[in-house]
Backbone:
C-alpha cells in the first residue's frame, strides 16, 4: 500500500495535534521504518499486514525520511521540525501522513503500539475498570493476557455483586460448566447494566462468549436455552449438568486450552472497550480441541423469557 504526499489538501483529523495542544510523538514501537530515499520510507509491520505501506513525497523536498527519523525518541512535531530543518507547514503535512499511517503514535499510547498497528485498533483503549470473576487456569490466563493488552492490572476477584456494581466490564471465567455462577452473573448484569463476557471450558470444548450487553444483546438464559435445545440427548445433558458427581474430576485444564480460550476472549474484550463492538455480541465461539475445529454460533434473543418477565406470576414456554 502506498501513501503518496501530493499537493492536494488533506482533511482535518482529530488525531492531528493542534498548535495549542501538541503531544509528544514517537515512532510506533511495533513497526520498523525503512529508509528508501530522502523522499520515501516504508512502514513495516509484518509481510502481510495492512499496516505495512510506503509513504512517498512526490514534491521531492528531500526531507521526509529525515523528519520521520527525528521521532526515534518522543518529541513534539515542532521539535522534530527544528531538528530536521523543516518549515512548520511541511512538518504538519508530513505529521498527518505519518499519524494516519500508524507510523507515529503519541508517547502516552506507546504501550499500545501493537494494538494500533497489528490489531486494527484506531487508538489506545480508554481507561476502564475490568475484572475477572472466577478461579482456575482460565481465569488466570485471561487476567494475565488482559493485563498485558491493556497495560494495567486486571485482577481476579471473588465478589460477584460488588464487581458488577463497580466495574465497566466483567469477565466470568470457569474451568468447567457452572450454570449457577453464570445465571448469578446474568442477574447481576441486569440489575447494574454492566456488560460482561462468559468464558469457560466444558471438557474438550472451550466456550468463549457471548459478550453480554444488558438490554441490547442476548442474555445467558437465551444461550442456555439454545444450547439445551440443540442437544440430541437432552435429558442426559440436563442430568449431567446439575448432578453432583460421587468422584469429581481433578485434572487441571491444560494451559494450552486455557490460553487458547483466553486469547479469543481478550480480543473480544479489546474490541468492546475500544468501541468497535465485540465480535462475540450475540455469538458464542466453540473451540473443540477434541476434533480440532472452531465454530462461531449465533445466539438468538428469545421473546418473553422468565428473566425478562420475572414480575409476572404465570409461567410461559420460552418459544411461545
Residues:
Amino acid at each position: 500500500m502506498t501513501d503518496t504526499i501530493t499537493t492536494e489538501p488533506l482533511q482535518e483529523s482529530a488525531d492531528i495535534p493542534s498548535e495549542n495542544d501538541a503531544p509528544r510523538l514517537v515512532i510506533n514501537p511495533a513497526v520498523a521504518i525503512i529508509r528508501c530515499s530522502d523522499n520515501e520510507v516504508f512502514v513495516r509491520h509484518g509481510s502481510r499486514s495492512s499496516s505495512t505501506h510506503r509513504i512517498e513525497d512526490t514534491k521531492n523536498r528531500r526531507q521526509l525520511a529525515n523528519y520521520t527519523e527525528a521521532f526515534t525518541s518522543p518529541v513534539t512535531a515542532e521539535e522534530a521540525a527544528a531538528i530536521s530543518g523543516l518549515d512548520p507547514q511541511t512538518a504538519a503535512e508530513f505529521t498527518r501522513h505519518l499519524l494516519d499511517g500508524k507510523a507515529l503514535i503519541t508517547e502516552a499510547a506507546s504501550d499500545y503500539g501493537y494494538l494500533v498497528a497489528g490489531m486494527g485498533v484506531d487508538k489506545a483503549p480508554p481507561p476502564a475498570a475490568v475484572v475477572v470473576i472466577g478461579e482456575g487456569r482460565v481465569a488466570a490466563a485471561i487476567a494475565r493476557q488482559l493485563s498485558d493488552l491493556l497495560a494495567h492490572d486486571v485482577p481476579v476477584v471473588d465478589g460477584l455483586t460488588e464487581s458488577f456494581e463497580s466495574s465497566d466490564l466483567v469477565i466470568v471465567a470457569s474451568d468447567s460448566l457452572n450454570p449457577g455462577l453464570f445465571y448469578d452473573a446474568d442477574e447481576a448484569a441486569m440489575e447494574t447494566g454492566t456488560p460482561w463476557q462468559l468464558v469457560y471450558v466444558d471438557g474438550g470444548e472451550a466456550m468463549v462468549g457471548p459478550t453480554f450487553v444488558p438490554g441490547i444483546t442476548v442474555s445467558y438464559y437465551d444461550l442456555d436455552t439454545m444450547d439445551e435445545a440443540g442437544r440430541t440427548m437432552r435429558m442426559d445433558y440436563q442430568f449431567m449438568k446439575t448432578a453432583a458427581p460421587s468422584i469429581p474430576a481433578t485434572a487441571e485444564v491444560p494451559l494450552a486450552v486455557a490460553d487458547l480460550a483466553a486469547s479469543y476472549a481478550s480480543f473480544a474484550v479489546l474490541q468492546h472497550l475500544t468501541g468497535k463492538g465485540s465480535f462475540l455480541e450475540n455469538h458464542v465461539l466453540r473451540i473443540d480441541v477434541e476434533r480440532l475445529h472452531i465454530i462461531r454460533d449465533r445466539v438468538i434473543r428469545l421473546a418473553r423469557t422468565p428473566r425478562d418477565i420475572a414480575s409476572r406470576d404465570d409461567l410461559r414456554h420460552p418459544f411461545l
Summary: The longest strand covers residues 205-212. Confidence is low (pLDDT under 50) at residues 7-17.
